[in-house]
Amino acid sequence: MTPPVPDQRTPTGQVRIVLVDDHAIVRHGLRSVLEREEDLHVVGEAATAAEAVDVVAAARPHVVLLDLKLSTGDNTEGLHLCGRLTELHPGLGVLVLTTFLDGGLVVEAIHRGARGYVVKDVDTTELVRSIRAVARRESSFDSRSAAAMVESMNSPSSDPRLTERELIVLRQLAHGLSNRDIGAKLFISETTVKFHVRNIMRKLTATSRAEAVYEASKLHLI
């Protein structure tokens, strides 16, 4: 059920924020922290991707604070949601707030329209600074996310730095399994498998699944 959207009337100059996280206690804690700031106002919350689309459309926030891991237990749902929200609302600022610290995820989030990326144990001052920066249409990353992104972007092609889940999917590719079969075996959706396969091929600079397996074998990844 989509949570009710609070009163949309906010004073001029305030930053309107929607919280997207599947844990109610996390959303409650964030709301309590953020609303101590006079210029920050939480205008909506969502626990799922579907709820987020509805709440953002109704509440018209300046910033969405988005956790990548939602109901599916996989960060891909959050990435897909990021891309959908920024496509539907071009002026929207998405700030990823998550427990996942991976350079590839940071880069992928930016490719999908996010303006910033911070990890959940960031201190309150840094989080507030990031929200205000994103609201000004600037980019913002905490120091660890920025370092992970730079490291990922500077990694040579001989070191593709596949994630643990990508390596698992890659091994299934090597056994000749289809996307549907891989999804059934790993208990993830076929769409999620396609997302991982696309990332694997990009990181290995491969143009086909067979080439990806071949390149991975040369790098002793499988």
From TrEMBL:
Pfam families xrefs: GerE (PF00196), Response_reg (PF00072)
Domain HTH luxR-type: 155-220
Modified residues (4-aspartylphosphate): D67
Xref: Gene3D superfamilies: 3.40.50.2300
Keyword field: DNA-binding, Phosphoprotein
Ranges where the Response regulatory domain occurs: 16-135
UniProt xrefs under SMART domains: HTH_LUXR, REC
UniProt GO molecular function: DNA binding
GO biological process, any: regulation of DNA-templated transcription
Protein name per its UniProtKB record: Response regulator transcription factor
Organism for this UniProt entry: Saccharopolyspora karakumensis
High-level lineage: Bacteria, Bacillati, Actinomycetota, Actinomycetes, Pseudonocardiales
